[in-house]
Amino acid sequence: MSDGSDADAIRQSAVPAPRGAELPLPPAAVPGGPHDGDIADGLEETYWSVYDGAASKATVGQILARLPRIVRQIGRLAWTADRTATLAVVVLQLASAAMTAFGLMASVAVLRELFAEGPTPDRVRAAAPQLLIVVGFLAARTLLEAGVAVAQARVTPKIRTALETEFLTLTAHVRLEVVDDADWHDEAYRANDRGLFYARQIVGQVISLAAALLGLVGTAGVLGVLHPALLPLLLLSVLPVGAAAVRTARARFHSFKRWNTLQRRVRVFSWLLLERDAAAELRSDTAQGALLEEHRRLTTRIAEEDTRLGVSSAGLTLAGRAVGGIGTGITYTALGAMLIAGWLPLAAGAGAVLAIQAAQSSLTRLVDISHLVYEHAMWVDDLLAFQERCRDLQPRRSGLPAPETVKTIALEDVSFTYPGKATPALNAISMTLHAGQTVAFVGVNGSGKSTCARLLAGLYEPQDGGTVRWDGLNVLDMDAESLQARVGCVLQDPVRFPFSALANLTVSRGTLTEADPQRALDAARASGAEQVIAGLPGRWEALLSKRFRGGQELSAGQWAKVAVARGLYKNAPVLLLDEPTASMDPRAEHAVYEAVLRDNPRPDQITVLISHRLASVVACDRIFVFNGGRITESGTHQELMDLRGEYADMFTLQADGYRTEAGEVA
Question: Where is each ABC transporter domain found (predicted)?
């Protein structure tokens, strides 16, 4: 065994820690997750769990106070989606409730005949017509409920479709700087995942809520007709049941929120075990066993927690039913006393028992559904509020259309700061670009190159009084989308549209189904995508996604060629190339630059190239050097090399990397 000299050598050769940041030795063992206390602690609340469990915290008064507004809100959505179906739901639901009440009254009439004096066969025959009436009312109620279901089936999908269409339309068009805001992203995904989901469910829940409420009112009305003194007995019977239902519903919602949170911790390990990007390193480190052991420990704790919550919920339900049973017993005792005292005939007493049981069932349903509607309505409110916010974040829909050609684009004292950032990404920059020019933006990461390009494209708008002018016309006076349609953008990480190869080009002109064949072929040839597409089964019609049967998967370099072809196919007066060849091999990169920048210069197009590989910008007509949001140098390649400034230093540094110490090419 070696002595301590090896450890001393390691300590002496280690990189020294920064001052004030000395790190002590780590412990010999550390848990993979919390072992004590609530294993749900330590997780950030996710965007999709904001309102989970809200019903478990709300009081009965809060729920009851909010229900009318919720019903009105859902009613407005349904009325807008389909007035006929909405009206049918309301009318048929009221009629169904009436049939329930009439059926109960008819049942009392049947009991009256059965409990009358005389031979049993005579009493049964006398009750037969009333029994047929009961059957008729029940059949009518069944038909009416079927009608409600049909009308609901008509209106619910229309509400969902209308909300989803509006949601996607609004979010797809908000200004780009809004999309860069992480908080907006959370709101958008929350509205999509939860708001749209519960918007579909809540219509049926509100209908069920109305049915339970009308059923409760109907039975109360029947009892009032039988004898007014029965109404206090109804309250005595149903209030304990309602209180138990409230407590049970709250416990269930609280349990669901905890279960949801606990499952998230387990999914952390499940995702790592299933994640494709982690698969290679997981196997290389032989870490599967460690993750599985932690997964097993957590699932055991969760099972114990589930059992505890289940036992607690069962006890609460038992207690509620016991209290409710006492109330029901008192009710039936009082009802018996009324029968003995002669206040009620026996048939009316039997009918009262049926009505009280129906009322208890309706109240329990009412409580459960009220909690659901209360919580789910928060998600729908969230969706509607988000949509309203997005309406204020739309680009300009009015103004002059952007010109189809442009001779000069001038930036004058343009600044831009991203949402949530204190330091401006661009700080009072000015430049003038001319048609026929190829211009390069260079600089370190975060220097403002891409931000400036997006301002040129109309994706961002200048701030603090700066202006961007196309042939002297302020872009703020133009329709925003018409301006964006005049700029072709090719980005470093292009969208991999799961469409056909041809649609991946035509989408740049706003269509997936119509193409200019010659323009598509020319763009594919100039970008190097011609060979990529020619090698695909089906060629132009090949689907570029493994999500489809027979779909093809391209490499990053092949996608880059398709993206360049897409930008060229747009045939816009301004072409922005933002690190378009970063994933291409050197031969393909050289071919693209030769074809796009040198072989086919367009006198009517302004081409802007953003690149870290400075060899590609040497032939550009003008090079702008960005640093800290400002333009620090500009000129041709030779002018900037003669200046011996920042550009010359960067170019020399890159060039030296391709040479050996002897000056030969590596």
Answer: 409-653
**H helices present in 174-287, as ranges:** 176-179, 182-190, 196-226, 230-274, 276-284
DSSP 427: E
Which pair of tokens denotes residue 247?
């407590």
Task: Determine how many CB atoms are found less than 10 A away from the CB of residue 415.
Answer: 17
Write the pLDDT tens digit of every residue in 269-310. Answer: 777 788 777 788 878 888 888 888 878 887 887 787 678 777
Q: What single letter denotes the amino acid at residue 52?
A: D
Helices (H) and strands (E) in the chain, counts: 21, 10
Closest among 516, 393, 361, 377 to 68, alpha carbons compared: 377
The DSSP bridge partners found for residue 432 are 410
Computed over every residue of the chain, the mean pLDDT equals: 79
Query: Would you say 462 and 468 are in contact if contact means Cβ atoms under 8 Å apart?
Result: yes
* Distance of alpha carbon 519 from alpha carbon 568, whole angstroms: 9
Give me 143's structure tokens: 């038909």
CB 572 within 8 A of CB 404: no
CA distance 505 to 512: 9
List the structure tokens of 284: 């290389």
Q: How far apart are CA 415 and CA 425, in angstroms?
A: 7
In tens, the pLDDT along 34-92 reads: 444 444 444 455 555 666 666 666 677 777 787 888 888 888 888 888 889 889 988 98
128 vs 126: CA distance, rounded Å: 6
Q: Are 610 and 449 in contact (CB under 8 A)?
A: yes
pTM strictly above 0.85: no
Give the separation between CA 571 and CA 486, rounded to whole angstroms.
8
Helix (H, G, I), strand (E, B) or coil at 440: strand
- Residue 204, both tokens: 């049926």
Q: How far is CA 153 from CA 88, 165, 212, in A?
A: 12, 19, 19
